[in-house]
Amino acid sequence: MIPPADSLLKYDTPVLVKTSSGGKYPKVGQVRVIPQQSTDSIPIPPLPKSKTASSEGNKLENEEILNAILPPREWTEGNQLWVQKVSSAPCIRADIIHLEEKLDTKLEQRQARHTGICPIRRELYSQCFDEIIRQVTIICAERGLLLLRVRDEINMTIATYQTLYESSIAFGMRKALQAEQGKVDVEKRIEYLEEEKQELLKQLDEQKARCDAIEKREKEKRQVEERKDNEEIQFLKKTNHQLKTQLEGMITPKK
After folding, report:
1. What does 124-158 look like in DSSP terms, one character per residue?
2. Which positions ≥6 away from 160 have C-beta within 8 Å?
3. Long-range residue pairs from 43-51, CB within 8 A, at least 24 positions apart, any chain
4. Crossing angle for the helix pair 55-69 and 119-139, to the nearest 10 degrees
5. SS3 75
6. How many Cβ atoms sit within 10 Å of the Cβ of residue 184?
7. Backbone angles phi, psi at 19, to 5 degrees
């Protein structure tokens, strides 16, 4: 027989329930835990009517409540169905000390993290809390039912936080993808603007070169025109001087 995984919750010796030849049970070694009942559906033991109530009846009643709080687990080996119920034996001080030592040992063996989110640590502490519920239920069923409500509330709160955590992770991933996509778009925009800037700088250089060439050509043209104008002015001045000299010679009387 392949035994189920070791647990901090104390179980009785496995019991063979039936043997099937049809092979309708799960595969070898597969463990199935009977679903736990809700707190409202668990039978609450009535208050004792008198002090003469038999201890055997109370024990059976506590065992019934214990099996409802902590359902037995089932598994098959071959064609044999095995059932293992939680132990109904009361605990002593040595059992509590042993439970604490076993918890510390398993935390170290399975390398559970001391802080932060750790499924291994959560699983082991959950088993330890179930064992405490078992021990308390054997002594006082009502107290065990109250602890069951506390456990269910804790599990519901943790499930809510887990859902919130997963949704926040998904939200963060979406925002990261959007930011990454936005980054790619911005990088493409920057690349396009850089190319446009280079093209504009090239056009600016061409226009500057053209402007310099035009200025140089116009300057040379102006210098040529100025030189021609100066030559023409000098020629006109010279001609004017000659004409003036001839006119004065003609006007001056001869002696």
Report:
1. HHHHHHHHHHHHHHHH-HHHHHHHHHHHHHHHHHH
2. none
3. 43/68, 44/141, 44/142, 44/145, 45/141, 45/142
4. 160
5. strand
6. 10
7. -120, 130
> Which residues lie closer than 8 Å to 145 by C-beta, 6 or more apart?
39, 42, 44, 65, 69, 137
What tens digit of pLDDT does each residue of 86-117 get?
A: 888 888 889 889 999 999 999 999 999 988 88
Write out pLDDT tens, residues 43-66: 544 544 444 445 666 777 778 888
pLDDT of residue 50: 46
Cα–Cα distance measured from residue 131 to residue 137, given in angstroms and rounded to the nearest whole number: 10
The per-residue pLDDT for range 209-218, each reduced to its tens digit, is 999 999 999 9
C-alpha 144/C-alpha 235 separation (Å) is 133
Residue 206 Cα distances to 35, 201, 216, angstroms: 84, 9, 15
Beta-carbon contacts of 59 under 8 Å, excluding residues fewer than 6 positions away, are 88
Distance, in Å, from the CA atom of 121 to the CA atom of 64, rounded to the nearest integer, reads: 30
Of 30, 29, 3, nearest to 14 (Cα)? 3
Give CA–CA dist 142/44, Å, rounded: 7
